[in-house]
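Protein folding task:
====================
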Amino acid sequence: MTERDAARVLAHPEAAEIRLEGVLHALSDPVRLSIVRDLAATEAELACSYFELPVTKSTTTHHFRVLRESGVVRQCYRGTAKMNGLRRAELAELFPGLLDGVLAAAAAEQARDDG
């Protein structure tokens, strides 16, 4: 790894450091929850630029940082793109049913709002 690549490595909590209150805080914001819903809908990693969010670029950066620092997503650079993946397996092991329950509740709420 070159010095430049090392500078671009993002800090993530180890699984043992992920706290329930941090995950709940990250998932409590509608913008962050929409990011998680998009990530949950695919096995692929998605670039930050994939997401069309109703906020400024600096606010988008903040939302991704909250998700990363809480342990909900893992981010890495691929060239100039910052890629995002949901830490689904780790979250399921730490908090069984939490992510699936939150995603199901968000889908039900969306259906109510649309209907």
